[in-house]
């Protein structure tokens, strides 16, 4: 399934939920643009940080090779400093934003994928999906749905308020960071409360 929905572009989406507060700065440059940000404008956001892989090389946007799959995507980042990016795709836009805001976390996730090559060997049958280890499953789950909540409140109330889209109180010391790109895309496109993997 492809989550493109470029026609659903909302230039103010970063202001509509506390989930996107961290993205306010990179998204500001897209507010007055003509529709979904194109590759050139997205590349400018990446270059402004700049975003680097675990080897210190600056990432560049590249058209993803569909045949390469998830393992090929991770290798392209680590070995070629190329971040697979489909223009007009919400999932890839969210991934770009997380790289811009949490570059070290994303680089470490990528490096952890590459440090587990045993789970990425392709099977003999060409049609079969490549096996993925439990470690890489966990890394992918966090990458797609991960949320970090730092709170002095032992209950889940801060998390529940956050998912409901409630604005943070002035004296609210809780810190919530959403790294999961699937969780973010879900929030934008469906515009309703959601859940995630809490870390």
Radius of gyration: 17 Å
User: What characteristic shape results from the CA principal axes?
Assistant: globular
Stretches where pLDDT falls below 50 for ≥5 residues? 123-129, 167-171, 191-199
N- to C-terminal distance:
27 Å
Spatially, the strands of the biggest sheet line up as 4-3-5
Mean pLDDT equals: 75
Structural class: mainly alpha
Number of helices: 8
Could you say how many structural domains there are in total? 1
Reported for the largest beta sheet, the result is: 3 strands, mixed
Notes on the structure:
It contains eight helices and five strands, in the order H-H-E-H-E-H-H-H-E-H-E-H-E. With 199 residues, it is mainly alpha-helical. Helices cover 40% and strands 9% of the residues. The strands form two sheets. A three-stranded mixed sheet has the order 4-3-5. The longest helix is centred in the middle third of the chain and has 12 residues, at 69-80. Helix 3 links the parallel strand 1 and strand 2 (82-84). The protein has one domain.
